[in-house]
Amino acid sequence: MADLEVYKNLSPEKVERCMSVMQSGTQMIKLKRGTKGLVRLFYLDEHRTRLRWRPSRKSEKAKILIDSIYKVTEGRQSEIFHRQAEGNFDPSCCFTIYHGNHMESLDLITSNPEEARTWITGLKYLMAGISDEDSLAKRQRTHDH
After folding, report:
1. Residue 68 lies inside a defined structural domain of this protein
2. Is 55 helix (H, G, I), strand (E, B) or coil?
3. What is the DSSP letter of 68?
4. Domain assignment of residue 139, yes or no
5. 60 pLDDT band (50/70/90 cuts)?
6. 12 Cβ partners below 8 Å, 6+ apart?
7. Residue 106 burial by Cβ neighbours in a 10 Å radius (0-12, 13-18, 19+)
8. In what residue span(s) does the PH domain sit (predicted)?
9. What's the domain range around 70?
């Protein structure tokens, strides 16, 4: 989690800019194994605890809890991106969110590098905050015992 440390020191203006873009939503292409990419609107919920997207047939499942995100990688690094070699996506518009107990990947492509940067920065900022609270809570629990 050391690489997240830098995200705690972002200026409040930068954080707010990222959050407001994320909360208003961004159209991105969601890559899936063996299918053409799906265009979805991705957005951060009002509590900043979940990443959601629509449309989705299973709207209850169309979410990722921020605290279940394991890591966010820039560029075309995931297995799915490698398999989609024919897609000429600009790597600076691509990123992957690894989440859940099984390290599932959500592979996304934005329409410009600026959007990708905003989302990567915003997600890592949220992850840094959560990892901090978790470690604080754990320390307090062990202290109480």
Report:
1. yes
2. coil
3. G
4. no
5. confident
6. none
7. buried
8. 20-128
9. 1-131
Residue 141 belongs to a domain:
no
pLDDT tens-place string over residues 35-57 = 788 999 999 999 999 999 999 88
Give the Cα separation of 22 and 108 in Å (integer).
14
pTM of the model: 0.85
- Which tokens belong to 124? 């890592």
Of all helices (H) and strands (E), which one includes residue 130? helix 113-144
Q: Do residues 4 and 127 touch, judged by C-beta distance below 8 A?
A: yes
Residues 119, 26, 15: CA angle, nearest 5 degrees: 35
Q: What is the CATH number of the domain that holds 40?
A: 2.30.29.30
Amino acid at 131: S
CA 107 to chain centre: 9
State how far the Cα of 98 lies from the Cα of 74, in Å rounded to an integer. 11
- Of residues 14, 131, 125, 144, the one with CA closest to residue 72: 125
